[in-house]
Every structure is written in structure tokens, then in C-alpha cells.
Design goal:
By secondary structure, the protein is of the alpha/beta class. The protein has 2 domains: 44 residues, no CATH class; 162 residues, SPOUT methyltransferase, trefoil knot domain (Alpha/beta knot, 3-Layer(aba) Sandwich). The chain has a 7-stranded parallel sheet with strand order 3-2-1-6-4-7-5, with helices on both faces. Helix 4 links the parallel strand 1 and strand 2. Helix 4 packs parallel to helix 8. The longest helix is centred in the C-terminal third of the chain and has 16 residues. The chain starts with 8 loop residues before the first helix and ends in a 5-residue tail after the last helix.
Amino acid sequence: MLRTDRQFADLLHLAKAKRIPVHIEPPPVFDRLVPSGHHQGVIALIAAKFYDTTEQILEQAKTRGEPPFLVLLDGVEDPHNLGAVLRTAEAAGVHGVFIPERRAVGLTSVVAKVSAGALDHISVGRVGNLIRLIQSLKETGLWVYGLDPQANKLHTDIDLTGPIALVLGGEGEGIRSSVLGECDDRIRIRMQGRVQSLNVSAAAAVALFEVVRQRRGGAV
């Protein structure tokens, strides 16, 4: 939306009532998204699939007779990274991936393409407040671990066979301190070289398949 004046008041009110995020963007952004210029000051971005609720995702784990295995992404803005994480998560048997409504990419056509079909087979939830989600998950018995390069514990030192949620941060800043503070513990991936962090999709692959290894009794 270009602005929030009277001309757009009704539309803004309807969007908020439906909990649809609204972003005010400058004209250059509109020109990039709609090169033809036929937008009348409003552009709607529709997700490539419907989002699932937390209850629906946890019910899937229960139906499969497995302890919940969730991924929470804090501020992943690159659609290629999100698509890659979804592809890895589906391959690892993750029951659901959660993304925040703001400061994060949604389920765009690019995300769907990069996921290489995984988006059709994995549940994705979108929440207004990641901290509240973490608190809610902990109340239901999940242990929540944040992947933090500065953590003392290695991801291989933690028992990941029970009900868990892994939190991964976005490009650049990683997990916000307020979100890290809600996690039960922090874990890191051992780095052997001079580079001390991985791209979020690479970190997801390493961490998620450690969960797979542990849940298969250590089998590779």
C-alpha cells in the first residue's frame, strides 16, 4: 500500500480485521513489483498455499505417532533461503515450519519453486508473535533450542529425540536476542574453519539431520 490516508481507510480496516499484514512502501517498490504501473496504490501478495495453525501441525505429529519436530524461522527474508529450508525440512520429516508475519518472506512463487515440490508436502504456519509461539510450545511440552554461533553447547550434545522446536535466525542478524531469551537452551554447530557461521539453509540441513540421526538410534 502506498499510504494509509482516507482513500485506503476501509481497505486497511478490512485487512487488519483479517490479520493480513499491511506494509507501506514507496513508489519505487510498486514500480518494481508491477512494471505496468496498473496498481492504484495497492498490491496484494497471495501465498503459494494456505498456512496451517499450530494446532493442526501438532495434530499431524500426533497422528503419525511421533514426538513433534518443528522449525521456527526468525526473520528469513530471502525466498531462496526459505525455499531451501522447506525442502530440507520436508526431507528430514519435520512436522511444520513457522514463519513470522513481519520482517520475513512469505510463501511466494519463488519459495515454492526453490522448494522443488516440498511446499506441497510440508505444513507451514505463520504467526504474529514468535515469542508467544515459543511460550505456547513450551507449555505443551516441547523443548525449544535456538541455533546460536556463540552458544556453549554443540547441537550433537543435546538429546533431540523428544518433542522439540529448533529456532534459526535470518540473514545477517541471526536470531533476535528477545527470541533467544525465550528458548530453553542455545546450541551451535561446530565450525572447523575460519568462517564462524553458515547460511541459514545450510545450518538447517546440518541441525535437522542430526535430529534424524538421533531418532534413528544413531544410524546414518
